[in-house]
Amino acid sequence: xxxxxxxxxxxxxxxxxxxPWRAVTAAGGTPKLVSTSAGRVQAFHHLDKADTFxxxxxxxxATAADFDGLVLPGGVANPDALRLDxxxxxxxKSFFDAGKPxxxxxxxxxxxxxxxxxxxxxxxxxxxxxxxxxxxxxxWVDEQVNICTAGPNTLITSRKPADLDAFCAAFVSEFxx
Length: 177
Hints:
The protein is an alpha/beta fold.
């Protein structure tokens, strides 16, 4: 299993990157960190700087064909920056176009809205995205994890770091098919 983790240069919630990363590794898979620029990305613990992580590929170098699925960690700043980057949005959309599973947690569905892939889908997120998801044509639910198969691919979403165990189990199972 090859899993792409897409994050902006800074702002990803560290635990939403590291715990799913460990879940992929524990399942015998290979995670790759994809970002908008080369070098290292700065993770955060809420609003405080945390660790940095090396980028494996930029969005200009990576393609959906190289991966079995895409993980979109949250954090408030991370998805907000990604949705302004046309190549990052195109990279996300390419997984939907290829019918490959996508997993998004917390604020990460903002990037799905920007990629115009939530219409007709059911998903969960951090509660403040509820109206954004509905306005984009999606159905928002308040669940620990939601697995939506009403589209070209499976979309796995979760609300927050407390949901990470269920989130990781769901997407690792789906990516392993």
